[in-house]
Amino acid sequence: MIGAVLAPVAVLAQADQTGNGSQPGSHYTLNILGKTDCTPADTNPNQGHTIQVLLVGGQKASDINGTTNNLLTIDRRNKIFLQPGDDFQVLDGNGCDGALFMLPTNICYKVYARGLGKPGGYADITTCAIDSNGTTNITDDVVVCSTSANTIRLDRTKKKFIDVTDELTTITIGTTTVPIFDSSLYGYFWNYDNHGLRLAQIRFYPVDCPE
């Protein structure tokens, strides 16, 4: 069921009626705020829809791709770890030491993103995970990230939403693409490499699942 839900989904054929690049209809909005220091998650009044990350911080996906890391040793700064569930929900809004975001596996949805806020800056978002290399020994586990073509760059000069469904719900390694939460990998996360972007806005729109 997870693969069917989170693989690329059918889009309801409709023009952009919103004027901002997204589609009309009910949706969940996630705000990723760039901060010089993150507020502890338990004191964040908007934790349900907000994740804080370092305004300038994180790692390039290309720098961590293939490195020997597991969930115990990985640098957690500006990483948004993903957990399957029944709803969209921020479980830990402190991205300075690893945020946690729940994505539903019981519905199909489209994802749109844009950069906002002043001054300028940009952020690169890449889906990554950890490969156990087929062993139970975590010392040989490595980080794998989507190819550079599947990295999203958001900046405030482009205020319209762009469709990022495939980039944020799948991971492409070489010529192989699998949905997030696929059992071939574990510890899925969005690597958020921030270069001064104060606000990334991500919207999730439920859509009809393909038959």
Q: Pick out the low-confidence regions.
A: 1-17
Count of all domains = 1
Specify the helix fraction band: under 10%
Helical stretch tally: 3
- Overall 3D form: globular
**Distance between the amino and carboxyl termini:** 13 Å
**Average of per-residue pLDDT values:** 87
The gyration radius over C-alpha positions equals 16 Å
Number of strands: 15
Indicate the structural class: mainly beta
Largest sheet: 8 strands, mixed
The amount of beta strand, in percent, is 35-45%
Give, in order, the helices and strands. HEEEHEEEEEEEEHEEEE
How would you summarize what this structure contains?
By secondary structure, the protein is mainly beta. It has one domain.
Blueprint (SSEs and pairs):
Layout: H1 2-6, E1 28-35, E2 50-54, E3 56-57, H2 61-64, E4 79-85, E5 89-92, E6 99-104, E7 108-116, E8 122-131, E9 142-145, E10 152-155, E11 162-163, H3 165-169, E12 170-173, E13 176-179, E14 186-195, E15 199-207
Parallel strand pairs: 1-2, 4-6
Antiparallel strand pairs: 1-15, 3-14, 4-14, 5-6, 7-11, 7-15, 8-9, 8-10, 8-14, 12-13
Folded structure, characterized:
- Helix content is 7%, strand content 42%.
- The two termini are 13 Å apart.
- It has one domain (2-11, 26-207).
- It has 211 residues and is mostly beta strands.
- A hairpin with a 6-residue loop joins strand 5 and strand 6 (99-104).
- The protein has three helices and 15 strands.
